[in-house]
Riboflavin biosynthesis protein RibD (Roseovarius litorisediminis), 356 residues
Amino acid sequence: MALALMLGRRGQGQCWPNPAVGCVIVKDGRIVGRGWTAPGGRPHAEPLALAQAGAAAKGATAYVTLEPCAHHGQTPPCAEALINAGVAHVVAPFADNDPRVSGKGFEMLRAAGVEVTTGVLSKQAAQELDGFLRRNEQGRPRVTLKLASSFDGRIATATGHSQWITGAQARRAVHGLRAKHDAVMIGAGTARADDPMLTVRDMGVSRQPVRVVVSRRLDLPMMSKLAMTAKEVPLWLCHGPHADAALSETWEGIGATLVPCQLTGGHLDMASVLQALGDLGLTRVFCEGGGALAASLLSAGLVDELVGFTAGLAIGAEGLPAIGAMGIARLEEAARFTLIETRDVGGDVMHRWERR
């Protein structure tokens, strides 16, 4: 199952709205088939592993990181494929919380005489599939907030100079993280100040993440890299209900997808933004700031994981803070995160935290 989970990670960021599932087929103590969800979500992990196993699948045990699907979609059910191949035993962490499946796959397998074992590495599987499971339960994707800052928590000098606070290896690690997410999200201020591309480069990915910009008024530069590549790489603009009609028409004309969202207190409601992104199929969103967007997500309790890259330099109080004002008066008002990893990345410190 640990190998199946590792294989499933290869599909992260490539197969939304489907889950990134891994499958390993074992016969007489030997691995005879391996598979993971293909880019675009098809084929699923199980038929890929079964194709590799061939006749050896008969009487074998299949380790799958999520309950095999039981419904007819673009392809036949994976539970049916396992039955037809003669698999004798299926091991999975837990049932799929998609109501189209939710126990039906296990029922189909058991009805055909296939032994089913659940509860294996369920905690690890829940972490790997959190975005897919969260979208099914809450309607929104998993959110990872990345901050690259100086030792004193600044992302730019007072003049706005920010390239580069962290080193080349840290920046490459960020591209790796982008590749594992369905979308990369920034605020309008970051789009205006940095003119980023937000693509994954030099990683050999077959499917670029969606680029999401949160801009209430759609007042973004039309000569930006994002605008000039909107037809080549998906660009989604989350905006308020009163965005200028001419701007809306212009952005749609150059290939952007407009995502209308609700306002709260004159600002875009981030719960509404994430709900809209979930409705469009996203399961994992990688937020790269800026400070105002980070503060909005944290204040609303919508950040599931923090990833920090901290460099060994100090900029001072006049520098631009990594996170904007949150109005916190007492420490107990601040959300606490639990440290899950820390390591050196080319002389910078990467630290990962999960929401408690």
Summary: The domain at 1-128 is CATH 3.40.140.10 (Cytidine Deaminase; domain 2). Residues 168-179 form the longest helix (12 residues). The longest strand covers residues 337-345. The mean pLDDT is 95.
